Amino acid sequence: MKQLAALQHTFQKRILDPSAVESSAWVSARGRASPETQLSIYTYAYRARLQEVLANDYPALRVAMGDDDFYHLADAYIQAHPSHYFSLRDFGCHLSVFVTGWMRRQELHMEIPWSHELVLFEWTLGQAFDAANGTIFTERDMAVIPAESWPELRFRIHPSVHRLDLEWNIPEIWRALTNEPPVEVIARRETTSPWLVWREKLITRYRSLETDEQDALDRIREGENFDNVCEALATRMREDEVPMRVAGLLKGWITQGLISGVEY
């Protein structure tokens, strides 16, 4: 068993970094191919599969960069972050941090200065789609809540809901790059704008948020109660406008499946 474990460790080490194990004497030479050829097949297959995973997770980035640069990025990422996950779904989770430094080293950051935000947006779309299922709170559920309970009411956000703050027109860029065929779009820097990403049934959705909705939704995600949310909105508008605005926001969130339940 110790010999088997040592053999497996050597094999894994060679696949992850061919230069780390130069000798192939531990591989049988009685096969149809030489030991070096046998090892190179596994090494190629390992990297090719991980490249495929990154290409599937980041299709817009691949189009923006072109295949050559994208696969150079993928190779560098695989070297820096070999897979330690049982599911390949999580393999690309570090790319949003990794891509900025790699772009600078390759002197590509001026060509695609929005690459970090594009990677973050694409990853968030995938996370929303793969999020755990959760119950969906309905207007009928809301109707049975006692009126005296509303001030202390706390809402549970659906597991698929994510919030992003973007400085570039990334959703527009993403739509253009994933269009078939891709279409031209002008990348422009904007004031930081909040975006919401979630899954509605089996469809990933995203939309921008107005400032007051962003504030209210962020407070709900942080666990603040309904009374605190209303007080925060009252600092942004006339007090008599707050009930109608809150009612409209709640109805929209419930209709879109953003709320999983309440606590009171």
Account of the 3D structure:
There is one protein chain. The protein is α+β, with helices and mostly antiparallel strands. It has a domain at 134-264: Outer Surface Protein A, domain 3 (Alpha-Beta Complex), CATH 3.90.930.50. It is 51% helix and 13% strand. It is built from eleven helices and five strands. The protein has helices at 2-16, 35-57, 59-65, 67-80, 95-105, 115-130, 139-143, 170-178, 211-221, 226-234, 242-255, and strands spanning 154-157, 162-168, 189-200, 203-208, 259-263. A hairpin with a 2-residue loop joins strand 3 and strand 4 (203-208).
In quaternary terms, these chains amount to single chain
Please state roughly what percent of the residues sit in beta strands, choosing from under 5%, 5-15%, 15-25%, 25-35%, 35-45% or over 45%: 5-15%
Residue share in helix: 40-55%
What is the 3D form? elongated
Number of DSSP E strands: 5
Q: Examine the coordinates and then state which fold CATH places here, giving the name of the CATH topology of the domain at 134-264.
A: Outer Surface Protein A, domain 3
Mean pLDDT: 90
Low-confidence stretches: none
First-last Cα distance = 57 Å
For the largest sheet, list the strands in their spatial order: 2-3-4
CATH class of the domain at 134-264: Alpha Beta
